[in-house]
Automatic annotation (TrEMBL):
It comes from the Bacteria. Transmembrane segments: none annotated. It comes from Sphaerisporangium corydalis. InterPro entries: TcpC, TcpC_C. This is Conjugal transfer protein.
Amino acid sequence: MGRAVLWAVIIVIVVNGVRAPIERFAQGDQPTNPATAPTSSGFPEAGAAAFAAQFAAAYLNFDGSKPDDRADRLKPFLPEGGERQFGWNGFGRMSAGAFQLSDVEVTDTQNAVVTVFAQSGAQRWKLSVPVYVSGGRFVVSGEPALLPAGGPAGLPQVPQLEHDATAEGELRPQLEGFFRAYAAGDAAQLQRYVVQGVTLDGFDGKVNLAELQSVSAPPGGTSREITAVVVWNVATGPTPSPASTSSDPVAQAAGLEQAYRLNVEKQGDNWYIKDIRGAARSAG
């Protein structure tokens, strides 16, 4: 009886050992759970977006004194035999740029309406362009639609921040020295103003500090997040002098007001910078 039971166990083990690899072979590389169906529409959105932006650059730039220039630029985008000016009456002048994708509304695998942003002078626009694709090639399949892009969002007022006037007075001379070294990109000078172990890249002389306009420090301990507003003189040409008296605006130094957020730490009587980033909101 004992031998019979032993042989039965051996037979079960052998049968299972043979069956398992056979089943795995039959299943191949199929996953245990069925694969999720792709959610992509199949329409090449990235290519259509680039195509529509290029078309908008040709469509929204025209000059009544040179109508053929626009017609030549439009030709690669239009169906064979399409109207050369594509709805323009040949008069007026417009110059547009800053073309950026807004959205792609896909109809099916070959059709979509691509909307791009554009700017002409002080006016922002949207241009919706119907696009058809076949064999990897695109064509504008109908007349576009010019839409308003809307104005800026209303920005709510923020509560007036509480200031630590004592800390702001202590920080000002430190920050003036820091921003001068930061503008120059002088690594040795920067080490005088940053926390030990911190390394910051400067501007390497591409800008100069014109003014440390304001320092805003909230109450707190020895570590704080503060905001500083500086004015940079930016080198936009052949090194104009900041004190230039030329009547030509181009010959004078360009000034840009910038807001920075800094994490600072007080060690002894001095404050040191741990990092610097762009400010989230205007300093208050």
